[in-house]
Amino acid sequence: MYFEKYQSSGQWRWRLKAANHEIITAGESYWNEADCDHAINLVKGTTGSTPVYRR
Question: What's the pTM?
Answer without folding.
Answer: 0.76
